[in-house]
C-alpha cells in the first residue's frame, strides 16, 4: 500500500513530541511492506535540530509552507492508497485539512490522524465556528494517538465515519536498556517540554516533591524550562536529543511521566515516554489517569501517583532492587503487548475494515 502523510516532522523531535510516535509507526509499516512518504514543513527551526537523517524506511519531503506548495504536493500525493493529514502540523493546518479532503478520489482513502485528540475535541466544543467541525464527516477515517472510548465517542458525536485509537508503543531497536550515565543520575528523572497545559501538573508531581526532598537528586530535560525558578536539587539539561533518551531513562532510580491536562482528563492516553521508558527497563512513576491499568499493572509493572505527596512516599519507599524489579516487569509487558509492530498490525486491520465498508 502507498501511504502519504502530512505531519509536523519525522526528522526532528524539537518542540515535536509526536516525532517518535511517527517514527515507530512508519518504520513498522515499512517493515510490513508499505511504501510511505512523509511531508513536513520547514518550520519552527526543526530542520536545524533534526536528529534523524535520511531513514531508509521512509521518503521524507521537506517543503516551504505555502498554499501553492501544499496544492502541488497534494496533487502528487493524491495517487496514494491512503492519504493522511495529522493534527498539529503547526503551519497551514486549516488549509491542509480542507485541501486534503478535496484530494479525495474513488481510488484512495483520506484520513485524519489526531495526535492530540483530547485537546482537539475540547477546542471544537468551545469554538462553534471552527472550520474543522464541518470537515470531520468528510474524512473516511479518523485515527487517534490514544484517548480510548471517550475520544471515539467525541469524534462520533462530530460525525466521524469511523474512529480508532492507535496507542503509542516502543520500537525495541530504538529504546532498550543501556548503561547508566552519571550526568543523568538522580532519584527522579522527568523529560517533558514546558507547555501551558502541563506546567501546573509538573509543579505538583515534580517540582513540589523536589522541594520537599531537598536531600535527593532530580533531573529535568525538555524545551522551555529556561528561567523557571527551580529547587536547588533539580538539574536542568534543556532540549534532550533522542539519541540520549535511553541513557536518560536508565540513569534514574525512577522516571516520571506527567500528562497534559486534557490527556489526564480523558484518560486512556499514555504518553510516548510511558512505553519508551518502560522499553528501556526503567521504573516508571506516572500521574494517575483513567485506563492506566489497561496498559501496565500498577505496583508491579508501574507506579501510579495521585499527587505530589504520593510521589514523595513512593520515592522514600523505592529501593534500587525494587526499581529494577518493576522496570524488568514493565519491559517484559512492553515487548509482549506494546511494540509498534503490534500497532502496525492494528493499523492494517483498521484499514481492511474501512476498505471493506
Question: Describe it for me?
Answer:
With 357 residues, the chain is of the alpha/beta class. It has 2 domains: 186 residues, Rossmann fold (3-Layer(aba) Sandwich), CATH 3.40.50; 156 residues, Rossmann fold. Helix content is 39%, strand content 16%. Helix 1 links the parallel strand 1 and strand 2. It is globular. The mean pLDDT is 95.
CATH architecture of the largest domain: 3-Layer(aba) Sandwich
Q: Tell me the structural class.
A: alpha/beta
* CATH class category name of the largest domain: Alpha Beta
Beta-strand fraction estimate: 15-25%
Based on DSSP secondary structure assignment, what is the total number of beta strands? 13
Helix percent band: 25-40%
The coarse overall form would be globular
How many angstroms separate the termini? 18 Å
Average pLDDT over all residues = 95
Classify the fold: give the CATH topology of the largest domain. Rossmann fold
Number of helices: 13
Largest sheet: 7 strands, parallel
Residue ranges: pLDDT <50 for 5 or more in a row? Answer: none
So, the CATH homologous superfamily of the largest domain? Glycogen Phosphorylase B
Number of domains: 2
What's the alpha carbon Rg, rounded to whole Å?
20 Å
Widest beta sheet: strand line-up: 3-2-1-4-5-6-7
Topology of helices and strands:
Blueprint: E1 2-6, H1 19-31, E2 35-41, E3 59-63, H2 67-77, E4 82-86, H3 93-102, E5 109-114, H4 117-126, H5 132-135, E6 141-144, H6 148-157, E7 163-165, E8 188-191, H7 196-212, E9 218-221, E10 234-236, H8 245-250, E11 255-257, H9 261-266, H10 272-279, E12 284-287, E13 303-305, H11 308-317, H12 320-337, H13 340-356
Parallel strand pairs: 1-2, 1-4, 2-3, 4-5, 5-6, 6-7, 8-9, 8-11, 9-10, 11-12, 12-13
